[in-house]
């Protein structure tokens, strides 16, 4: 499910992981075991990549004049002393502009020209692996590659039948208001992407880089409110003075032609199938965490909202497993991507209500293990849920239910969206509308593992399931 966002700054940490879990890692001297390669984003030598998806998380067609929609900004820092013994820093990039400009059909450096891939979807997946090799950092128990910035165009041309129907070939059908495609053919295009390579400021003390762009391929004024726009800027003070780590500044603006856009900051698994992605992935999560034993720490300041139709996720955790609990294997007809998203936009209502049980998960589990069915109007916390939808291939979903949009992932999906409510306080999540929103910047410690262990996800009766 894509998020409708208009004129907003959006920062979402999306924990996406589906590969085998490792068991050993150093504690970084902080009394905890970190599942990510760069805990706290403290490392001066940043590793960040970006990807752009169409409605069903593929490429379709590359944007004119742009490379395949995968890129990276990965670098190391070299330090020497000047004549006064003061440190002098130099940024040494590991990914070139030529690397980022690679398009479908181009051979990857170091490979045979005969091994080129012309399919745009498969080329982008291969390019991610290539960039991962350029950015990879050796570590224990496994090496890691980069944080991932994700862009998504929510337009769907239903007459073209480009996106599969619950992982199977789709048939064309007439355009509906549920699936926007302003302008018709071509509405699912990839964005223009302009990259500012990370560099030191004139004083040699601050590192800054970023990317920006638009989906309007003919745009002449990116500042116009009628033009879609996104930007991501990352910055950090170099050396010991930069103890706060990297700060990421995100901005996203929709337009009449592109009313449904997404912008994420993801921590994907370093191997395997990430949520919503049916190719081998690269990322920052070197240990795939198991529920209930993991937490996420992040600091978030929301500068501007996007109105009642926008969804702003404090946390989106995603994974992939089949309805019988088996691991995903790339079979898009039987794999299911599962998402749970905390929406902190205070204008987002709870669609789950006693009179709309089809919008609710069948069960709510409290932190103490008490389970309450949605038919129990006296005890079920309806106001804690925005919406729940069942995977389209769930043959035994408890009725009544709403089935998830069958087109916006390459495989069926299950989505559970929650909103601030007292029942989430035990997990460190916001308990009241407005918490963490504009004017209320916060450092969060979210017990994501315990929450994911408690939330309802569909599974075939008698199957055994380990969430995340």
TrEMBL record:
Keywords: Signal. InterPro entries: DUF7705. Residues 1-20 form the signal peptide. It holds the Pfam family DUF7705. The keyword Signal applies. PANTHER family: EXPANSIN-LIKE EG45 DOMAIN-CONTAINING PROTEIN, OS05G0272800 PROTEIN. This is DUF7705 domain-containing protein. It comes from Triticum turgidum subsp. durum.
């Amino acid at each position: 499910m894509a998020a409708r966002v208009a004129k907003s700054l959006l920062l979402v940490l999306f924990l996406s992981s589906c590969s085998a879990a490792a068991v050993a890692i150093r504690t970084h001297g902080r009394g905890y075991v970190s599942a990510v390669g760069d805990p706290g984003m403290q490392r001066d030598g940043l590793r960040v990549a970006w990807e752009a998806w169409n409605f069903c998380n593929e490429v379709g067609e590359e944007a004119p004049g742009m490379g395949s929609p995968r890129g990276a900004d990965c670098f190391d820092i070299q330090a020497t002393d000047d004549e006064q013994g003061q440190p002098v820093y130099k940024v040494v990039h590991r990914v070139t502009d030529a690397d980022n400009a690679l398009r479908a059909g181009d051979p990857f450096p170091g490979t045979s020209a005969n091994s080129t891939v012309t399919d745009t979807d498969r080329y982008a997946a291969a390019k991610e692996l290539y960039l991962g090799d350029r950015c990879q950092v050796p570590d224990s128990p496994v090496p890691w590659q980069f944080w991932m910035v994700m862009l998504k165009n929510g337009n769907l041309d239903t007459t073209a039948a480009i996106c599969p129907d619950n992982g199977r070939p789709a048939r064309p059908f007439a355009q509906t208001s549920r699936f926007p495609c302003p302008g018709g053919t071509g509405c699912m295009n990839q964005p223009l992407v302009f990259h500012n390579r990370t560099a030191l400021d004139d004083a040699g003390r601050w590192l800054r880089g970023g990317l920006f762009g638009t989906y309007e391929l003919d745009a002449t004024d990116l500042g116009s409110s009628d033009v879609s726009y996104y930007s991501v800027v990352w910055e950090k003070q170099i050396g010991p003075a930069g103890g706060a780590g990297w700060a990421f500044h995100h901005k996203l603006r929709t337009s009449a032609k592109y009313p449904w856009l997404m912008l994420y900051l993801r921590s994907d698994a370093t191997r395997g199938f990430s949520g919503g992605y049916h190719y081998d992935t690269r990322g920052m999560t070197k240990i795939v965490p198991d529920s209930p034993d993991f937490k996420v720490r992040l600091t978030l300041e929301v500068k501007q909202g996007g109105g009642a139709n926008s969804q702003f996720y404090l946390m989106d955790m995603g994974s992939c497993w089949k309805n019988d609990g088996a691991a995903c294997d790339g079979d898009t007809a039987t794999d299911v991507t599962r998402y749970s998203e905390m929406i902190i936009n205070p204008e987002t209502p709870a669609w789950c209500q006693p009179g709309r049980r089809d919008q609710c998960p069948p069960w709510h589990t409290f932190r103490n293990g008490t389970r309450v069915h949605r038919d129990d109007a006296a005890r079920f916390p309806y106001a804690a849920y925005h919406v729940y939808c069942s995977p389209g291939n769930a043959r035994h979903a408890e009725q009544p239910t709403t089935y998830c949009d069958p087109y916006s992932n390459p495989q069926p999906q299950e989505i559970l969206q929650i909103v601030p409510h007292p029942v989430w306080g035990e997990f460190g999540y916001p308990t009241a509308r407005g918490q963490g929103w504009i004017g209320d910047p916060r450092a969060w410690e979210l017990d994501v593992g315990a929450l994911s262990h408690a939330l309802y996800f569909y599974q075939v009766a008698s199957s055994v399931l380990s969430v995340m």
